[in-house]
Amino acid sequence: MSLHRTELGESGSRIVFCHGLFGQGKNWTQVAKALSAEHRVTLLDMPNHGRSPWTETFDYVHLADLVAAELGDEPVALVGHSMGGKIAMCLALRHPERVERLAVVDIAPAGYDSGREFIGYTETMRGLDLSALERRSDADEAMAADVPDPVVRSFLLQNLRRTDDGWHWQPNLELLARHMAELAGWPDEALGDATYDGPVLWIGGSRSDYVTDEHAPEMDRRFPRNRRVVIKDAGHWVHSERPDVFLEVLRRFLA
User: Fold this and answer.
1) Which domain holds residue 59?
2) Catalytic site includes residue 82
């Protein structure tokens, strides 16, 4: 399996970004452009998302191995948000020689309750009558009642693509809906006693509860060289809500 990628920058150390659920590599374009003068940046579409191939099941260990195969032999700085953060953590634990440093954005090495709001998003997207759409604004209007936040709705609609035979969702929605428990979970048992001893930065949002003090013991056990930064006035999508602050924090870590 070869994942879809976008490359920016021609010199410097390598940085690889792993997006979250319903995201695409291009969601990181603004950050990547800002870093590309000093780094070689790779934006990957995760399996079952964007233009990357689909898998037959959802398993974080398997997904981490698929992403690891894309990295090559040169150790990289790995950045992952939400679902992509869990993939990045698993990758660092299973293939530490390929990760020079790790930045995890608003997710912990822990399971969460039932996929939370993402179950509703999946149901709304799957319930949309794509054959009735004439333009993207029709989808926006049809989803407004179930997804009232226009920012979230716009984010989800980035996954709607028109081809010669009509409108299609790019993510593998059927698989993601079927494996929401695994997606919200964390493969602790499968990872055994693995730890990652490289530098790790957690970047969280002050209005998010995805990373709390309760997660600290497991963060310390798996990733003993970690530190945590909380960005004010940011929720789960820290990098899009406070891009300037996020970029400055990430730049300092990469340096």
Assistant:
1) 5-112+186-254
2) yes
